[in-house]
Sequence to fold (140 residues):
Amino acid sequence: MLNFTIISQRNRQKYIHKNYAYVLHGKKSDGKILFWRCDRKIIKCPGRIWTTVEGEFIKMITEHQCTPSKNHIELKKLKNFIKQQVRETTETPKQILQKASLEFGIKNMDKYVTEKQIQNQRRKYKWQLKSNIFIGINLK
Fold:
């Protein structure tokens, strides 16, 4: 299966190719080819590619109007790393920031993410867990 490094805000996988991030747009009826669109939907970038289910790039369908940005991808990876730490560990926000700083080689993490943002992310995640518990209850 595909090796994704970024998860979207809606918990969907993103495909990274040549410093562009793509979100899954659909798949061929036989299920062997996946269709991806540029994740910069706000600026209406028409960039589209096809890949195999295994993640091998097949071809560029439509060229991009946006420019590729390694910083854009790295920032998404950083945010993803922090979200993963929030969900999988009980570390304090300060510890998470220190770990992210070492992982990504960034000295001033406050420029990208703050302890308050991590606290809010943890609160949001805990609320989602509580909500999922109540969804399964059958009220009569």
Remarks:
- Helices lie at 70-88, 93-104, 115-135.
